[in-house]
Amino acid sequence: MADIDLRALALEVVTAVCEDGAYYHSVIRQASDKYSYLEREKKSFFVRVSAGTIEKLQTIDAVISSCSKTKPSAMKPFIRNLLRISVCQIMFMDSVPDSAAINEAVKLCRRRHFDGLCGFVNAVLRKIASTHGSIVLTDAQRYCVNEELYGLLRSQYPDRYRYILDSFNSDTHETFIRLNARRRPQALPVGLREVSHEIGVYAVKGSLSELKGFEEGIFTVQNLAACLPVYLADVRPHQKVLDLCAAPGGKSIQAADMMGDTGEVISCDISQARSLMIDENIKRCGFNNIKTIINDASIYNKAFERAFDVVLCDVPCSGIGTIADKPDIRNRFSQAAASQAAALSRRILENAHRYVRPGGKLVFSTCTLNREENEDAVEYLKSVCELTPVDVRDRLPACITEYEVGDGITIYPMAGVCAGFYAAVLEIKG
Questions:
Q1: Any residues with CB less than 8 A from the CB of 322 and at least 6 apart, and which?
Q2: 167 in a domain, yes or no?
Q3: Residue 367 annotated as catalytic
Q4: Of the residues 367, 385, 399, 418, which is catalytic?
């Protein structure tokens, strides 16, 4: 089998994200699956180059702009992204000698028949290698977020924005899982770090494929933030629960687990493909009290009227809180897109509160830190129905220490513990 050019592979991933608008987590998963036969060190290298380039893109482009008369936006896409992955190696990967990063970039440039630009690539990278430490960057560039996102966080969290940005840049690169209580083994799988004993969330360092128990349904891949809505709702046995935006099904499975496989969970999402994702996880975990339905949460469903004790409403959002796992959000965030998400959220909430039985709970949640998508949505809901916010501070897991309370709770990102998150538990009056 011919050797795989790891830098060329990283270049493909970065190009797909930066030029084609693909989502990093999807592209890297596809590439990892395609090249699953690679040795761990080789796979780790191309993932580090790919993720590092996307994560540090704002810094990288600023440095390239300072060292080249041609700005990145005016370069050919291949050259632009070749320089980006090479600068990532020079600036952020101590294990790669500058000379190796530069020489391999020139070789790759020549192999892709850009012979006339090899000298340009060589000259720009050599200049960057010798001067990047003295280049002056804006705060947004240093924190590796676009100016629009930096401005939003600074304006909405004037006392905490630096903490939030620092948290985004200190990811532990772990995978998080929640153990299913009804299938929990006597001896835990080796290699777990406990995050929350209350919910059963653990961190896994390294490859998830090496952790035994996934196919047996012992755990679901689910971080602490994703587990909090169901836990804060205090779901009880024999209740009827509606999960409106459910794929891939982690919250539905968690609710079924908390009810001891009693009651009923109606697990919904907008398409057959997303519904199949839920079905696969339900089958793997072996729960019998979950039913999947294809349903558009933004359209009122009369069959759901006042039918549920708990309605889970984890709406689409701008995802700011998940930047540590989804680095492309750093570069593509826009307030316009966030406002569109907020408008969709309001349409979903208009329907969701009508599905809750009198005295039941609506659990509204997002994985973002944008007040327009969070607090403003709750204010809107208060204007269209009678509700009482439930104080959930006493139910917070002990590991959650960085948060802000209002009608809901904003949880600040905590490296190795929890992504940034918002949740409001709202009791609906009759």
A1: 225, 329, 367, 419, 420
A2: no
A3: yes
A4: 367
